[in-house]
Design brief:
Layout (H helix, E strand, L loop, with lengths): L2 H7 L3 E4 L9 E4 L3 H7 L4 E5 L5 H9 L3 E4 L7 H10 L3 E3 L4 H10 L3
Parallel strand pairs: 2-3, 3-4, 4-5
Antiparallel strand pairs: 1-5
Length: 109
């Protein structure tokens, strides 16, 4: 499933939009960056509460399709700028990681 199809069906705030269409194969939930680097996979959607710029470095390293920041956390400005530079979309929601994961599961992800 592609990212735009998924995001059009969820009530998420788009913080960083990319023009590139991205494929999504799976979802990874985690906040410890070293674990995300070792366990997530290319084309995952990454659900996290982390908002600092290192999130984008990890997402780029792994090939993450998009980052969803949960629990109403505010994304730091330098993270937004780096995400634009690296062409990595960021979305936010007030929902918990569990709640948004359930919605993604309902979409077949």
């Amino acid at each position: 499933m592609n990212l735009s199809d998924i995001m059009n069906q969820l009530d998420l705030e788009e913080v960083v939009k990319t023009t590139q269409e991205k494929e999504v194969n799976n979802v990874y939930i985690g906040d410890l960056l070293s674990i995300v680097m070792s366990k997530s996979q290319e084309n995952d959607i990454w659900i996290t509460i982390q908002t600092h710029v290192n999130v984008i470095a990890v997402a780029a390293l792994v090939g993450i399709s998009a980052v969803i920041v949960v629990e109403g956390m505010k994304v730091e400005q330098d993270t937004i700028e780096k995400a634009k530079e690296m062409n990595i979309p960021i979305y936010t929601t007030s929902l918990s990681a569990y709640e948004i994961a359930c919605k993604l599961n309902e979409l077949g992800i």
